[in-house]
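Make up an example, fold above all:
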Amino acid sequence: MQRLPSWTWDPAKAAANLRKHGVSFELAAVALDTDTGSLSETDPHPDRDRCDTLALIGSLVLYIVHTHERIISARPATPRERRKYHNETQ
């Protein structure tokens, strides 16, 4: 199991996510760190144990699905999600 300060993830899932979406879980972990990233409000995921978060890292807005400590998936936000992020963080 990979780990970055307070985040864990499955290495095989992380590799598949990187291939599919071009986003590493390491980058997602940094984006979720509120000291370095800027987060929109976290929304509950249909699966009650998960959350959906829009986070900014550099100029990239990410859509991240996670639990309290585990990253499940991360991808670039869609145009609609980017607008939502910018509206919520203004």
Residues 2-89 form a domain with the Nuclear Transport Factor 2; Chain: A, fold (CATH 3.10.450.530). The two ends are 36 Å apart (CA to CA). The mean pLDDT is 85. The first strand starts at residue 2 and ends at 4.
